[in-house]
Design brief:
12 helices; single chain; extended; mainly alpha
Length: 318
């Protein structure tokens, strides 16, 4: 049987090229998709870590939620009524407002004063900035214990007073003095941050305003009152809002490490609402009461922030 030949004389046809698939998204669309995807990750993290637990805290505040009990019945506003009748909670609220008022006032006034002085000198400006900023980056716990040692009954400050012929003071053991020593410590530590904020604000004020004021014969106080203070208003608003929130949050570490009993003593004179919430939640295991107090704290912070922004954001005419 003869073998079948497959060879033909017809020329080989070139294979058709595969068609290129058009991309579904343009380059511009891909760029925006990447940006939104990157922004979505921290947003989801924020919703998971902050937003959902905050809403859950509102729910717990309306329940009798003891961490040792398997049942958490709904009790309405009973937790809020119990807090309103609790003298320790009212004391912690008063102390918190004292912390905010004197602490923020001290930070803003001293921070602005230091910034104005640094703006007037030409030499060693960087050295002074570093010296003032070092406490801000120092551990809060370390600073608290150093000041606690300084103001002990037999500490450095009392030793200085005795050497000067003055009577020794109780300081942190005194219900009337302890809170102001803790406030002074917090003001001292945050002074560098406030100084940097005010220096940035002062640098943004055009020099022409000062030159025009000098032509009109204005003295230093008139230039500060009519030029510096109005134009520095957005910086002051930012400083006051951040300072208020900082004094509510950071006061926990300062109070725990500087108070004589590490719980807001003596006689609850340094007890803040944050420390009281911690005691309710993790010492008395009363999560319902602690959540109700947290909601009240949230409303206080929100109210203070809105009032500060409304009052301090007043527009000036130049």
């Amino acid at each position: 049987m003869a073998e079948q030949s497959y060879e033909t004389n017809q020329p080989l046809q070139p294979k058709p090229k595969p068609k290129k698939r058009k991309p579904r998204l343009t380059l511009n669309q891909s760029k925006y998709l990447f940006v939104y995807a990157c922004l979505l990750v921290p947003l989801l993290f924020y919703i998971t870590i902050r937003f959902i637990p905050t809403l859950y805290t509102f729910n717990i505040g309306f329940r009798e939620w003891n961490i040792l009990s398997p049942e958490q019945p709904f009790i309405g506003f009973e937790n809020y009524v119990a807090l309103a009748q609790d003298p320790v909670f009212r004391k912690s609220l008063i102390n918190t407002f004292i912390f905010i008022f004197f602490g923020v006032l001290g930070q803003v006034v001293i921070g602005l004063g230091v910034a104005l002085l640094l703006q007037r000198i030409n030499k060693f400006v960087g050295v002074f900035r570093v010296i003032y900023f070092i406490p801000y980056v120092t551990s809060i716990v370390a600073v608290s214990w150093v000041f606690r040692w300084l103001f002990m009954n037999n500490g450095f400050v009392n030793e200085m007073l005795v050497n000067l012929g003055l009577p020794a003071q109780l300081f942190l053991n005194s219900p009337n003095q302890a809170i102001y020593i803790i406030i002074a410590t917090m003001v001292w530590q945050a002074l560098g941050f406030q100084m940097v904020i005010f220096l940035a604000g002062l640098e943004n004020i055009p020099k022409t305003f000062y030159e025009a004021a000098e032509v009109d014969g204005a003295n230093s106080w008139q230039k500060f009152k009519s030029v510096t203070f109005p134009l520095l208003n957005p910086t002051i608003v930012f400083s006051v809002v951040i300072g208020s929130i900082n004094f509510i949050q950071v006061s926990f570490t300062q109070v725990v490490n500087m108070s004589v009993d590490s719980a807001g003593g003596p006689l609850q004179s340094t007890l803040t609402i944050v420390v009281y919430i911690y005691q309710l939640a993790f010492r008395q295991f009363s999560m319902g009461m602690a959540s109700a107090a947290t909601v009240i704290l949230f409303l206080i912070v929100l109210t203070i922030t809105i009032i500060q922004m409304k009052v301090l954001s007043k527009k000036f005419d130049y």
